[in-house]
Specification:
Elements lengths: L4 E8 L2 E6 L4 E5 L13
Antiparallel strand pairs: 1-2, 2-3
């Protein structure tokens, strides 16, 4: 089975709640993955 994100909800800062087509769901912290000028605050 190929996993697909079926729902993504912004929680706060770099935290995203994801739900997959196999029923798995959880909170993902992307703070270590997203960096560089595009992601810096104003």
């Amino acid at each position: 089975m190929i996993l697909h994100v079926i729902e993504a909800k912004y929680e706060r800062d770099y935290l995203i709640h994801l739900k997959f087509n196999d029923g798995a769901k959880g909170l993902v912290d992307l703070s270590d993955q997203l960096f560089g000028p595009m992601f810096k605050g104003k």
